[in-house]
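Attaching the record inline, Q. Sequence:
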Amino acid sequence: MAIAWDTSLSVGIDAIDDDHKKLLEIINVLGSDSEKSREELTAILNELVDYTRYHFTREEELMAQHGYASLEKHQEEHGFFIAKLMDLGVMLESEDLEITREEASAFLSMWLTRHIRWSDFDYVSCVTKGERCGPDSPS
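Structure, as predicted:
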């Protein structure tokens, strides 16, 4: 089940949107119905881990440049997600390949949508407004 990029996912910063599109592309390859070996799936997951780390670094640098008040919380969420990706890698090595691929694809698709809509929209609005804000900031 592939998920198509939708303009409602755009945060309005081209570099970040391009990263999200690339992440979605990798997730869609992982979840495609074509038969893949364990080694191929591991390579795709490794690409996802590498690109996710790259993306998170870009986001965190942008947040730091603009004094985003909830940077630390966002970094914790990023760390949690990287750990989940590593767990998926372990599952690929030890469990039923087809079930793992389907579960991984569903989880990753939901995560990316949540990441964009709930986490990124918050910090991007702060960056574009030049305000110090976030879930932990005083109203």
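The chain has one domain: 14-30+37-128. The two ends are 40 Å apart (CA to CA).

More tomorrow.
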